Amino acid sequence: MRSVTVFFILLMTLGVMAQPAKNEKAEAYNKIIQTGTATEKTALMHELLQGLKTAKTEEPYSTAINLLQRLGFKNQADSVLKKAEKRFPKGALARTSFVNERFYKAETTVAKEKIYRQILQKWPVKNFPGSEITYDYMSGSLATDFAKEGNTEKAIYYLHNLNERFWRGNGYIPVGKLVLEAGDTATAAALFKTALEDAQYYATLPEDQKDNKARFAAMGYPGAVSAYVDILVGQGNYKEALDYIEQGMKLAPELNDGFLVSYYKSLAGLQRNLEAYNELSKIYKKGNFEYEASLKDLYVKLNGSETGFDRHIASLKQALLGDIRTHIKGIETDRAAPGFKLVNMEGVAVSLADLKGKVVVVDFWATWCQPCIRSFPGMKASQEMYAHDKDVQFLFIDTWEKVDDYKEKVAAFIKKNNYPFEVLFDDAATAGTNPTLADQFLVKGIPAKFIIDKEGSIRYALMGSSSNVEYIKMEMKEMIEAARLPRKK
């Protein structure tokens, strides 16, 4: 069976639902998806299929596929997709399937490039206004592949094919890092600087002019600055690096945390040791302990000895712990966890009912979700803290995957990174649930982590995650230990 790119389908569906005349119908559909009975969901499935008999355009097919997938009727969704591809062979759905099945599964870069040219010929970009990002994903993928192979010229060629400025940094920065590793600092610097300028443009737009694309691009501003500044620091251009950082902190103060590491490095390079120490202390207080040795070196430079350093470190950790406790207080909840029985990577069913009496940590994730992946080292360290505790169980629930062979991709990813995780698959076919478990947990975005107490009640619902290992460890420990205890009345 073939799957449809969720991002694309959602964009089309949202465009349809944005029309005022259809708002009420969309709300009714969502209510059935979230809380409807099996009979209501089956009735809606038949209504959607019946409606397609008079459909004259591709749009109703896209909407139906999206809704059928959310309802859990994957076979029906795949059947509708096949019909749409046959009826609209040069339409967006046929193109998306071809891209997923041929382009992204190509075994070599040469083969992928040949398929890309076929796609441009059959489905030209100009025929799909508003869908340029689909082509940018492919151009960015080709650019990265060529960069990995050392073909910088081809990599740059495909970067220049990118249409969407808001997304350009997502192609430029990964390629820039590969080019930098190959020793081409000048080319890498130019790519990083372009990404920086793009992100800065969006970060400094007036708030009333920022759409979702602008906000997405703005989030990459600190990373783009850091990538370029790291080159400047490596070249000893500390003053120029500092100018870029301070400009960024002034233009986008809400993103200041992302500038801290580059800021510290630039200040230290200019021998502004007290300021560098203060910035490094802020980094440490956020749970990033990898710079403790550098913090100690600066402390000794400022004080002449290391006397008192351990006390200072302890105070920073205590302040961090206080911040974490305040944070998790705000994500406390009290609702029964949905029961589930999901299959793991070995094909064995695991149920929540069998885990009653344990504190269960549930982490919803996907292989394409970078914030999920960035949190995994911290989650691995957290699980290892409780490796010998029989009263605590970690479950990593893979959800919202976009390709049919996701189970193989998940298994390969887990094996490659040596993660000792109990991974369960959240889909209607294996879960026997309708809708998926992520829907039942009211997940709106991933990563999403839930702490379930011994009685099966959700104590904490955490959306998003830090990437700092020590922060995650401390956060998880606070929530797990609180969930061991009876709820305060």
From TrEMBL:
<dbReference type="InterPro" id="IPR013766">
    <property type="entry name" value="Thioredoxin_domain"/>
</dbReference>
<dbReference type="InterPro" id="IPR036249">
    <property type="entry name" value="Thioredoxin-like_sf"/>
</dbReference>
<dbReference type="InterPro" id="IPR011990">
    <property type="entry name" value="TPR-like_helical_dom_sf"/>
</dbReference>
<dbReference type="InterPro" id="IPR050553">
    <property type="entry name" value="Thioredoxin_ResA/DsbE_sf"/>
</dbReference>
<keyword id="KW-0732">Signal</keyword>
<dbReference type="InterPro" id="IPR000866">
    <property type="entry name" value="AhpC/TSA"/>
</dbReference>
<feature type="domain" description="Thioredoxin">
    <location>
        <begin position="331"/>
        <end position="481"/>
    </location>
</feature>
<protein>
    <submittedName>
        <fullName>Redoxin domain-containing protein</fullName>
    </submittedName>
</protein>
<dbReference type="Pfam" id="PF00578">
    <property type="entry name" value="AhpC-TSA"/>
</dbReference>
<feature type="signal peptide">
    <location>
        <begin position="1"/>
        <end position="18"/>
    </location>
</feature>
